[in-house]
Amino acid sequence: MVNLKNKVAVITGGNGVLGGAIAKGLAHNGVKVGILGRSEASVQERVAEIKAAGGDAIALVADVLIKEKLIAAREIIEKEFGEIDILVNAAGGNMKGATITPEQSIFDLDMGDFDKVNQLNFKGTVLPTTIFGKAMVKNKKGSIINISSMAAQRALTRVMGYSAAKAAVDNFTKWLAVEMAQKYGDGIRVNAIAPGFFIGEQNRDLLLNSDGTLTDRGNTIISQTPMNRFGKPEELQGVANWLASDESSFVTGIVVPVDGGFGAFSGV
Length: 268
Hints:
Layout: E1 8-12, H1 17-28, E2 32-37, H2 40-52, E3 56-61, H3 67-81, E4 86-89, H4 111-139, E5 142-147, H5 160-184, E6 188-195, H6 204-207, H7 216-223, H8 237-244, E7 255-258
Parallel strand pairs: 1-2, 1-4, 2-3, 4-5, 5-6, 6-7
């Protein structure tokens, strides 16, 4: 069993489905978690859930794209819980204009939405890392876990902007792993998790009909996933706990797929 008791973590997007599951998994293992998100109501709701389950959590209401808000959040969690050991960059999302539907082509791309998606997913990973990672440098110890996507590794139709942003996250993960190790020693590690297909609020209507049956896209995805199902959010907890703990002390610069075999299957 991983030893995470009394470590301190910040989870950006911890009020979301996947980030929330990771936060709950860390808290279950004794980590004091800071739930960071823009919506105070959903952040407070996640904190309450963790506390009700016997965990320790604090609300950090902030936008991952606003430096001053992130600095304020860092000061709050350090005052409440102490030094930061773990950062999970789970904030992200998509926008309609950065998605190309079957009726559209690349020439219909909305560059405004494309920029916003890149800002949220890529800059929204880099900026929190520069704020919370600085706290790790003081002690030369910490684990940064970025949330990528299988869309970064396989060409998926529709999600053009999101895929490009997550591919940048993959590259940043590897670059930063080298940067941290060479400049600050072997105590600060940087890795990423690449979820396959999980049902969330943003993709629910793309994958499920109103009666709960699969859409055409949902059927295609399941047919290309050897485990023949979507992932469950709690299935991200094991790898996140491992990457956050000293059990993975010689692991840095990798992207771990959690995808039910989607990335391994050729379709034949």
